[in-house]
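Database export, one record per block. Field names are fixed; values are copied verbatim from the stored entry.
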Amino acid sequence: MLNIIMFGPPGAGKGTQSEMLMSKYNLTYISTGELLRQEIKEGTPIGKKVKERIEGGGLADDEIIVQLINKAIKNHEGSDGFLFDGFPRTYVQAYILDGLFIRLQRSLSRIFILDISDEECTRRLLQRAKEQDRKDDNEAVIKKRLQEYHQKTLPVLDFYKNSGLLTRVDATGSSTEIFGRIRKHIDDDIKKKVINVIMFGYPGAGMTTQANRLAEEFDLTCISTRELLQKEVQEQSSLGKQIQPYMEKGLLLPDEIVIRLIEKCLQQNTGNGGGYVFKGYPRTLVQAYILDGILKKKGHEINCVINLNVNYIELMKRLDARSRTPSKMPYDESATNIVSRLEEHEQHRDAILQYYRQHNQVIDIDGVGAIEEVYERLRVPVLRASRNLR
């Protein structure tokens, strides 16, 4: 989940960049000013209290502000994160936001500071005043607004100075150029997060091709149980000799054998990449539980399950075509074995998907079409799943 604070002096383009960020990353905009105005408009108890304070020449206190932000976050839990504007304004409010995130088991992703000179801000604001006939935006008013920004912002930035979150962005150039600079930081952060994906589907659905593409783009280690098993068979190890009869018929292997292979692979790849993409595993509900246990030992968990949907006729065509290529599987050469393999998958499919659907982890993807088309359908939701990591 992306949680961003946007700082910038008047005229830096904060509003424009905020809109672009919200659109690109499905963020909810949280402005304390807008929240207060909405409460007043709706005549809520908080709104009435704030209105009385403002009419008496006062300001909304921090207790009211924290209630509003807490409410806004809970009301938008379907978003992929939050973009804060106008909060925190003080050192105290920075602590308040920190406490809110701790209680909600979330954290800040980045604090962007749009870096631009006071002279350029003044030039932009005067130009905007001229174009929009805003006579209140004169040099004296602009100077005061800029001074106020610097006075209020510095203490808040001091709060975060050792957090590693402060990111200064050159705010000169076109809005597209500025957004590109901001986006690079966010996308780099997303790619650094550990994400574990299961590529699920019938034989012939294209799992291997799409799993390899995901692994390359998201810096994941691709774990294919079939490849692990094939390696053992090729090496003619004692384990490989036990495995071979099962593989020739496309049947399930004893879980104990597969567990040992997966644990061995994870151990060999410890510290590599940003997570794992599993292809061909789990193939039963029991194996789904087992995989959760294996990953928990490493401090990992499954983040999403890509379910490639391909109809039976298309699957038969693909498997028949594969039987005439070097990448053919042992069961491809027999129509009986192909049907048996598809039926075996069908027996376990619904239970496995239901297991992951309970945690809203399944992403259903139409697997029919060109390889690039299918990949584009699945990469976007995977990217979104990676953002939703707390």
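Remark 1: The mean pLDDT is 86.
Remark 2: Strands lie at 2-7, 28-31, 81-85, 110-115, 166-170, 197-201, 221-224, 276-279, 304-309, 362-366.
End of record.
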